[in-house]
Amino acid sequence: MLMLLLPVLQYGASVTALPPEILDRKAMEAKREARQSAAMASGPIIPPGQAAGCVDDMAANPAAGAVAAQNALDRAKGEERVRAGLCLGVALGAQERWGEAQTAFLRARDAVAPADNASRARLGAMAGNAALAGGQAETALTILDTAQTAAKTASDTDLLGSIVLDRARALVALGQTAQASAALAEARTATPDNAQAWLLSATLSRREKNFTEAQTQIERAAQISPRDAEIGLEAGVIAILSGRDAAARKSWQSVIATAPDSDSAKTAKGYLAQLDNGGAKP
Fold it and tell me: What are the residue ranges spanned by the domains of the chain?
């Protein structure tokens, strides 16, 4: 069975092939991170109440919100530019105007008080994710390196772990696999209960054909987040490559049972169809 499936396990296979590379879907991940970046605003960047209003306004009408935020940024002085820049970045990101969003987040970051390293790190992370979403991995890495330094200075381990994960995605995009592996190890140390860190580590280990380590890492990810569909998908891929067809089938069936209407379930059904058809492409 494994030999039959190997052709569709190769990197660069068609969109229906097995598996979708989690690390190589860097643009999708970055876009999701960028859209969620407003959640970071509940920290010391701006008062939570103001942050919620900003985010709500941008979500309701991103285009109009971007105009209003740009006008506010043009009028703002000093640290008022932080909130205005954040709102503008969120609005632009909602429209997938990633280059402009990156610039807005950087302008907000640069308006933060020098001693507020946590806020500088958060806004830098937002800018880095916007750069990743726009396909600018090298630029993203430079921005994220600065954000990582600020997060370390702020002693914010959760934020540090998130930034290190983003760095790993940028490094993979640049083909720097060894550095990405080191970044993921750092993320696991900083945030040992971060399921994404373990999932991405397992994916990279599997791609490097280190299946024993990949299995250990995916098991840890599943312990932390047992209902995560992407973890179930990756667990099945690792199992099939290790010659454990029954375990792979069980993993993919669990994805369908957990989130039957999701894209992950659709993918899992395709994987199972390949098994049922003797390994032929669906």
Answer: 26-191, 193-282
